[in-house]
Amino acid sequence: MKKSLFSKIFFTQIFVNLIVIILIIPTLFFAIGGYFVDSHRESILQEATKIAQMGRHVNALGKDKKAWDFFRSGIEFASGQSYAIVTDADGNVIAAPKDTRGVNLMKINKNFIKSAMEGRSMVALYPKGIIFNEQTLVSIVPIQENDALTGETHFLGAAIAYKPMPQIRHIQNRIISMVLMVHILGWVIAFVVAFILTRQIVKPVKRMRDAAKSIAAGNFEQRIPVKSNDEIGELSRTFNSMTQSLSELENMRSSFISDVSHELRTPMTIISGFVEGILDGTVPEEDREKYLSTVLEEIKRLSRLVSELLEASRLEQGKVELKKESVDINRLLLETVFANEQRLGEKKINLDLKLDETTPIAFADKDSIKRVLINLIDNAIKFTPNGGDILLATLRKNKKVYVSIKNSGEGISSEDLRHIWERFYKTDKSRSGDKKGVGLGLHIVKTIISQHGGQIYAQSEEGKSTTFVFVLDEA
What we know:
Elements: H1 5-55, H2 65-78, E1 83-88, E2 93-95, H3 114-117, E3 122-126, E4 136-146, E5 153-164, H4 166-216, H5 231-279, H6 288-316, E6 324-328, H7 329-339, H8 341-346, E7 350-354, E8 361-365, H9 366-383, E9 389-397, E10 400-408, H10 414-417, H11 441-451, E11 455-461, E12 465-473
Parallel strand pairs: 7-9
Antiparallel strand pairs: 1-2, 1-5, 3-4, 4-5, 6-8, 9-10, 10-12, 11-12
Helix pairs in contact: 1-2, 1-4, 4-5, 5-6, 6-11, 7-9, 9-11
């Protein structure tokens, strides 16, 4: 049978309360008895000691009845508020009060006075039973005589002082009854509180369970109301944050599928149409080379798309091993600029270089950082209008190497700026000059810099310029 979280918490509370009661009752029972023993120990022990002192002369009494009556009167007087019994060395009672007060003298024997026979005095609370008819506080002291000639100690018997204490049982019962009543009342209150509290704990958990089922079914708009600032409230906020991330991821996935489908469909349509035209003779012989060149460009475009997808996947899965070494950032930047010289010339872009003259050397994977520079400079050229400006700069500072790529142009909106590092994210396509990308370039750049333990950030002024800066450790 499946047990709910509610029943587990609720019945655990009940079980704990039962354990508390089971532990409290015997503890109180013995604590009360111990209190009475401690409070009367000294007085009853003194009374038994006085009786023992008188008992040393018991052998001198002989069979004189008056002497024995006088002896009994003496031990009764010495016993104070207790009752006195004297036994011989074999545990036989030789003197006892006229009113035995519920003690069975026939049961007093060697076992009863064992501590006295061993030369020890003792005080103990005896329960109601075979010897005593009520709970009784008993003190037993050995009666001993020292031999003047040999110095040896002879055991003559035991002096017993006892005091019936039925009030102990009464007090024990009263206190335990009161504790039980208070505990039962507290248990009822705890029962109600536990019921309410458990429901309050379980209710949001059930909401999360239902929400999780809804998310599993594909509904990423499900949210949980947050009604507290405790761990449950924090868990609810975390759950909502996770759901929001899943929703955004699903939107990006849908957008990516749409973008990739479009990017694949367009070149495939062009390639298919031109190849069919060449095969069926629709394309004249003299135009075939031009059409085949277009087909080749589209194939290269498809290859770039697949390569970016594979690279992004490998980077995210940590399958790219970095081979860090000392890298001359100025030299790497210039190599990338020279590779794009033709594109810069075609758009008549004004290029300004402000390179740190101290030759900044970064500790990095050369190929990976070159890929970062290629992507960022490619973006700068792509989004810079004809006749615009690009500024490339490097700087050494505090054992760090800073690289900056700034281009003039329309810039990036503050809304888009927050998402540019995400996979498959593309800025407003109506304004963007990027008609071929699928939004993987900056995501790859961000992943590479993060794997190096560096930082990268972007700044933009709409209608003016955009700046990308990344920071690496100096070698």
